[in-house]
Design goal:
The protein is an alpha/beta fold and 181 residues long. It has four helices and nine strands. The strands form two sheets. Strands 4-3-2-5-6-7 form a six-stranded mixed sheet, sandwiched between helices. Helix 1 (14-31) packs across helix 2. The two termini are 25 Å apart. It binds inosinic acid. Residues 45, 70, 77, 100-109, 153-155, 159-160 line the site of inosinic acid.
């Protein structure tokens, strides 16, 4: 796809994403062989990755949705997290995999993990398409990671800038002029 001047470059193209999603689906299918899994989509950023990933996982799968938001707009989070939409089903005794777009400071997922662990699932793992380890404010590690990336603000494939550009098919680096970086 041709992008405008808001995009500095394509970081991970849709073909590479598709290949990695297939691999992650295969790995999850093997790790949970003979078990049922509930895949939890974190709205809104995780939605595109989630839709692809669930179709790459074999076996007994249920899906659910949760939305947490870190306050703040633009490219910075404030460190405060709130629940916007809770899961539809209880998770006690279930194998849960939370599917996220990106682990950045780690604040959102460490909050979410604590919140879900209190509900006593059988297991709880985190699958994130992207990981920016250099940006951590709290110690946090995902269990399944698509791509480790540098400290650049990315959009597309579910990720936004002020709620725009989520529909771009590739993961792209936002031009710094757009956010004054
Ligand atoms: P956290 O900083 O790990 O808590 O990440 C919080 C949320 O910030 C992520 O789930 C994303 O929605 C958003 N985020 C962090 N980095 C980026 C980025 O580079 N592009 C778009 N959204 C991001």
């Amino acid at each position: 796809m041709e992008y405008g001047k808001e995009i500095k470059k394509v970081l991970v193209c849709k073909e590479r994403i598709a290949e990695r999603v297939r691999e992650l689906g295969e790995q999850i299918s093997r790790d949970y062989e003979g078990e049922s899994i509930t895949l939890v989509c974190t709205l809104r950023g995780g939605c595109v990755f989630f839709a692809d990933l669930i179709r790459a996982v074999r076996g007994d799968v249920e899906i659910d949705f949760i939305a947490v938001s870190s306050y703040g707009a633009g490219t910075k989070t404030s460190g405060e997290v709130k629940m916007v939409k809770d899961l539809s089903e209880p998770i006690k005794g279930k194998n849960i995999i939370v599917v996220e777009d990106i682990i950045d400071t780690g604040v959102t997922l460490s909050y979410l993990k604590k919140l879900l662990e209190a509900r006593e699932p059988k297991s709880l793992k985190i699958c994130s398409l992207l990981d920016k380890p250099s940006r951590r404010k709290v110690e946090f590690e995902g269990d399944y990671i698509g791509f480790e990336i540098e400290n650049e603000y990315v959009v597309g494939y579910g990720l936004d800038f002020n709620q725009k550009m989520r529909h771009y098919p590739d993961v792209c680096v936002l031009a710094p002029e757009v956010y004054g970086g």
